[in-house]
Amino acid sequence: MLVLAVTLLTFQGTLAQNIQARIIDRATKENIPYANIQVSALEHLVSNEEGYFNLSEGNSKDEIVITISYLGYFSQQLTINQLKKLDFVVALQPSIFELNDVKVSNVKPNPYEIMAQVKANLNTNHKNDVLPSKDFIFYRKSGLFKPAVIEVEINESTGFSKHALKKVNSDVQKFISKLISSPPKDFTDILGNYYNSTIKKDDKYVPVTKLEVLKATILENEGSSTSADELKKLAINTILQHLDSTKYYRAKSGLFGSRDTISLRKDFNKKKTKNKNTSTQILATKNNLNTFLTENNLLNTSSFNFIYNPEWYEYQYEGLSYMDGTEAAYVLTFKPKKSKAKYIGKLYISDSDYGVLRVTYDLDAGEKLNNVNLKLILGIKAADNKRKGTLMYRKKIHGKGYYLQYANIEKGQYFYVNRPLKFIELTSEEKDIFSLDIKIEGNTSSKMEYLNMSHTIITPSELQKVTEADFKFTKIKSYDPKIWKDYNAIEPLSEMKRFKTME
Predict the structure, then answer these.
(1) Structural domain total, the chain
(2) Is 26 exposed, middle or buried (0-12, 13-18, 19+ CB in 10 A)?
(3) N- or C-end of the chain: fewer Cβ atoms within 10 A?
(4) What is the value of pTM for the model shown?
(5) Quick one: 366 and 440 in the same domain?
């Protein structure tokens, strides 16, 4: 009986579990990132940077059929049962064609003529749907605040003794040491339905979006002395110790003073925020998602100058890439030719309609964006020193053009602040003064991943019925694949799997 019970438990455990698998190159055995995985013709997934993907419990039954494809390789269709027999490793075969199977010409296509066609067809190929659409999406964001130097010293506080100030400065230094040794990091995962439409208002077309969150988790250093929230709380508590909450103040930094009146009185702050809309989690999340999609829309001229200003770049035609001999794409590499150009990368462009199928880009060595250096004058220096991305597009089933299927965007910024800060009481009598010196130098980085698993056109009435509801993140202490057992999602990288909250 004991053997039977153990057998049944083992069988049940293996029957209901989500699957993790890996995609590799058959010849080199190297992992293949960003390969397409079609699940039962319903959902489209993408392997992560390390070549892994996962399937929900509902899509892990033996008879489920998946199709794996990647430009430059033969597609492979197999059942989950066959995937298990392959030990969850799928090896794709690079596409090899005989010369008589491919159009051959002694004249290579001109990359600048190709880019001219891309630019001319952008609005047709990459504009948003006018009709209402529903996208089943997964959105992951991670952030890291990594200070190299933090120096905070309170040097004046009316009514406090030198001994008291010394004690406060000592406590601040202990906190800073922990912060530098263990910088705060967080991961948020969101899965849901994203609705998008365009309505005409005052002779202008205005976008309308709705978000329906099905599941959301957050993994962070909650409760530790090194979380970003704790850093904010420390700053507030430090000021509270030295400012009278019944009085009014004005801030001054160096030669510059603020005209805004500062008060810690609750009734004062309520008056200032009385007419402002209260932000909710659903609204903040939707706004972040809207911003992300706008920034990564190829029609955004400020983000993709390697498309809109091809004269700034040197393009090289690398050849044609095929998928099973049917879908072909021009492959172009680019690098800066003029000082205004910042990026290096690669474009995959459809040979039939010049739509962008895939683009990878990165800042060229030594290049920076939004560089501000006022270190000598104002004690401030900042620059975007990291900006790289991979964008993949899939053809729309209804109508012309493409939609964004997958995006992986990384950003990083260097910052330096070295300034005095002073709070001066607003009074005609003797003034309370609280002043401190702040020096912070370091880097922040963020990574955003977006996966559109299915894109469908809906009716206006269906969109109207959608109601947005606020939600709360489920806080987790470590990544657990069981959390997503009911849904397909982006397989996390090893970094996230190793990450655990600090007790």
Answers:
(1) 2
(2) middle
(3) N
(4) 0.81
(5) yes
